[in-house]
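hiii so um. not sure if this is the right channel but i have a protein structure encoded as tokens and i wanna go backwards to a sequence. like what aa goes where. can anyone help
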């Protein structure tokens, strides 16, 4: 006997159907072993933000308010381009140039925590550049994860 959610084996044990999530073998975000998050305060000067981003080889950096709440992110390449074109001054704050996170009832906030299954993370990243990994109450940004992190994890696991 089988259902849409699981299939039975001759010994009566139920297993989930084979699908996209199988490549992660039940792994969660914590299994990615991500480095600690690097984020900028909203009042950081763009010159310093660009310098820090290139030191760490980051293309996107989360921006936090004074209570460490995520506000948005900066696209480092776009910001550097504006700076080099004279469209931004080195002393201006990153908050002026960040892409704000949209929080509304039509676009609810998706909480990604260390215990989020990787198949759920993969679905989230289908139309996003990165995800912020937070604690369950969303008070602290613990890490930043990208599609490349997922791909690297699958390659390491074989």
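sure thing!! here u go:
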């Amino acid at each position: 006997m089988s259902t849409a959610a699981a299939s039975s084996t001759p010994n009566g044990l139920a297993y989930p159907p084979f699908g996209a999530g199988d490549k992660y073998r039940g792994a969660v975000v914590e299994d990615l072993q991500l480095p600690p998050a690097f984020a900028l305060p909203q009042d950081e000067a763009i010159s310093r933000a660009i310098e820090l981003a290139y030191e760490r080889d980051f293309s996107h950096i989360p921006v936090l308010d004074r209570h460490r709440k995520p506000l948005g992110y900066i696209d480092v390449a776009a910001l550097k381009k504006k700076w080099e074109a004279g469209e931004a001054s080195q002393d201006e704050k990153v908050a002026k140039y960040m892409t704000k996170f949209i929080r509304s009832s039509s676009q609810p906030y998706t909480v990604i925590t260390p215990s989020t299954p990787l198949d759920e993370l993969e679905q989230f990243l289908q139309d996003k550049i990165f995800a912020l990994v937070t604690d369950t109450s969303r008070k602290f940004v613990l890490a930043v994860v990208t599609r490349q992190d997922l791909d690297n994890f699958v390659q390491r696991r074989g």
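oh and Helices lie at 46-56, 76-84, 118-124, 147-157.
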